[in-house]
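Quick one: structure for this chain?
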Amino acid sequence: MKLKFNQAIERGNLDESLAKANIKVNASEFVGAIVKWILVIVFLQASVGILGWLGFASLLGKVVSYLPNVIVAVLIFAVTVIIADIVEKVVRLSTERVKIGYGHIVSAIVKWAIWIFAIMIILEQLNIGGILPQAIIFGIIGFLTLAGGLAFGLGGRDAAAELIKDFKQKLSQK
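Got it. Here's what it folds into:
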């Protein structure tokens, strides 16, 4: 029985989305490698258990029980690549159709917001996402927000007023 896994991936455009993220992977080889290593670890665990090395067998059991978290994290990553790409294009096209400009900036902000959210979910799935990674991510976001606000507010008051005036004019014309 053939699963035709590569053809299903190609129909879903997952390979194109992964290529945009500079990830070159053959889907069937990737899944095959995961299954192979799961089987190797399971049989190694059984062999070590027979030999009486209970500590090592326990460690291998923990590795086997952790593998589903890794698989789900990889799936979340793949879905994020697709969703971030689609949403970025939709936002950019929407802002360009309304002709208010700045579509590339808005789409980049939306794309990075999706990526930050996905990274936090992936870290949580891998049981890494405690308070420290979240605090670091929130600290970086807060720093960028504060730095951007100060730079925009203090350094570009006149430019900001002109930009807002231009934006309001474009909105009122529509």
